[in-house]
Protein backbone atom coordinates (compact mmCIF):
# COMPACT_ATOMS: atom_id res chain seq x y z
CA UNK A 1 0.00 0.00 0.00
CA UNK A 2 1.58 3.32 -1.04
CA UNK A 3 1.92 6.09 1.53
CA UNK A 4 0.33 9.42 0.65
CA UNK A 5 1.82 12.58 2.17
CA UNK A 6 -0.11 15.77 2.85
CA UNK A 7 1.52 19.03 3.98
CA UNK A 8 -0.11 21.50 6.34
CA UNK A 9 2.08 24.58 6.31
CA UNK A 10 2.26 27.94 7.98
CA UNK A 11 0.16 27.23 11.06
CA UNK A 12 0.59 30.08 13.58
CA UNK A 13 -0.83 30.22 17.11
CA UNK A 14 -0.31 32.67 19.96
CA UNK A 15 1.12 30.99 23.06
CA UNK A 16 -1.17 30.92 26.08
CA UNK A 17 -0.49 33.65 28.62
CA UNK A 18 1.73 35.67 26.29
CA UNK A 19 -0.80 38.41 25.51
CA UNK A 20 -0.07 37.88 21.82
CA UNK A 21 3.65 38.64 22.18
CA UNK A 22 4.86 35.05 21.79
CA UNK A 23 3.75 32.56 19.17
CA UNK A 24 4.55 29.26 17.59
CA UNK A 25 4.62 28.58 13.86
CA UNK A 26 5.00 25.17 12.31
CA UNK A 27 4.66 23.01 9.22
CA UNK A 28 3.74 19.35 9.38
CA UNK A 29 3.58 16.46 6.96
CA UNK A 30 1.00 13.79 7.65
CA UNK A 31 1.03 10.37 6.06
CA UNK A 32 -1.86 8.05 5.28
CA UNK A 33 -2.45 4.94 3.24
CA UNK A 34 -6.02 6.01 2.43
CA UNK A 35 -6.57 8.06 -0.74
CA UNK A 36 -9.95 9.18 0.62
CA UNK A 37 -8.30 10.56 3.77
CA UNK A 38 -5.78 12.51 1.71
CA UNK A 39 -8.56 14.15 -0.30
CA UNK A 40 -10.59 14.81 2.82
CA UNK A 41 -7.61 16.55 4.47
CA UNK A 42 -7.51 18.92 1.50
CA UNK A 43 -11.25 19.53 1.67
CA UNK A 44 -11.29 20.04 5.46
CA UNK A 45 -7.94 21.76 5.94
CA UNK A 46 -9.66 24.83 7.41
CA UNK A 47 -11.17 22.63 10.18
CA UNK A 48 -7.86 20.91 10.83
CA UNK A 49 -5.99 24.24 10.97
CA UNK A 50 -8.57 25.66 13.39
CA UNK A 51 -8.24 22.63 15.68
CA UNK A 52 -4.42 22.84 15.59
CA UNK A 53 -4.47 26.58 16.36
CA UNK A 54 -6.76 25.93 19.32
CA UNK A 55 -4.53 23.13 20.62
CA UNK A 56 -1.23 25.01 20.28
CA UNK A 57 -2.78 28.29 21.45
CA UNK A 58 -3.72 26.60 24.70
CA UNK A 59 -0.06 25.86 25.52
CA UNK A 60 2.37 28.16 27.28
CA UNK A 61 5.81 29.03 25.92
CA UNK A 62 7.31 26.87 28.68
CA UNK A 63 5.24 23.89 27.61
CA UNK A 64 5.87 24.46 23.90
CA UNK A 65 9.62 24.64 24.63
CA UNK A 66 9.81 21.45 26.66
CA UNK A 67 11.80 18.53 25.36
CA UNK A 68 8.86 16.12 25.48
CA UNK A 69 6.32 18.41 23.87
CA UNK A 70 6.94 17.62 20.19
CA UNK A 71 6.72 13.88 20.82
CA UNK A 72 3.42 14.08 22.69
CA UNK A 73 2.12 16.74 20.26
CA UNK A 74 2.51 14.29 17.36
CA UNK A 75 0.10 11.85 19.04
CA UNK A 76 -2.31 14.67 19.87
CA UNK A 77 -2.19 16.06 16.31
CA UNK A 78 -2.85 12.58 14.94
CA UNK A 79 -5.92 12.33 17.20
CA UNK A 80 -7.12 15.82 16.22
CA UNK A 81 -6.86 15.11 12.50
CA UNK A 82 -8.35 11.63 12.76
CA UNK A 83 -11.24 13.18 14.69
CA UNK A 84 -11.99 15.44 11.71
CA UNK A 85 -11.65 12.72 9.07
CA UNK A 86 -14.58 10.48 8.21
CA UNK A 87 -12.88 8.42 5.47
CA UNK A 88 -9.72 6.72 6.65
CA UNK A 89 -7.11 8.01 9.04
CA UNK A 90 -3.58 9.32 9.20
CA UNK A 91 -0.75 7.13 10.44
CA UNK A 92 2.18 9.49 10.95
CA UNK A 93 2.82 13.13 11.84
CA UNK A 94 6.19 14.69 11.00
CA UNK A 95 7.23 18.21 11.99
CA UNK A 96 8.89 19.90 9.04
CA UNK A 97 9.30 23.24 10.85
CA UNK A 98 8.69 24.28 14.45
CA UNK A 99 9.60 27.76 15.69
CA UNK A 100 8.72 29.62 18.86
CA UNK A 101 9.05 33.42 18.69
Question: What topology emerges from the helices and strands here?
Answer:
Elements lengths: L3 E11 L8 E10 L2 H9 L1 H13 L3 H5 L3 H16 L7 E9 L1
Antiparallel strand pairs: 1-2, 2-3
Helix pairs in contact: 2-4
Describe this structure in words.
- This protein is of the alpha+beta class.
- The protein is built from four helices and three strands.
- The protein has helices spanning 35-43, 45-57, 61-65, 69-84, and strands spanning 4-14, 23-32, 92-100.
- A three-stranded antiparallel β-sheet has the order 1-2-3.
- Helix 2 runs antiparallel to helix 4 (69-84).
- The chain is elongated.
- The termini are far apart.
- The mean pLDDT is 95.
State the main characteristics.
101 residues, alpha+beta, three-stranded antiparallel beta sheet, 4 helices, 3 strands, 43% helix
In short:
43% of the residues lie in helices and 30% in strands. It is an alpha+beta fold and 101 residues long. The protein starts with a strand and ends with a strand.
Beta-strand percentage? 25-35%
Based on DSSP secondary structure assignment, what is the total number of beta strands?
3
- The chain-level structural class is alpha+beta
Q: Helix coverage percent of residues?
A: 40-55%
Count of individual helical segments: 4
Task: Output the radius of gyration.
Answer: 14 Å
* Mean model confidence by pLDDT: 95
Series of secondary-structure elements, N-terminal to C-terminal? EEHHHHE
| Shape type | elongated
For the largest sheet, list the strands in their spatial order. 1-2-3
Uncertain segments are: none
- Calculate the terminal CA-CA distance, rounded to whole Å: 39 Å
Give a short account of the largest sheet. Answer: 3 strands, antiparallel
Amino acid sequence: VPVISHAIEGVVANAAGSRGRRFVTFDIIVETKYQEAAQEMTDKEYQIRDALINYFGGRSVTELSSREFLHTAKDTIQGIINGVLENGEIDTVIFNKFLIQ
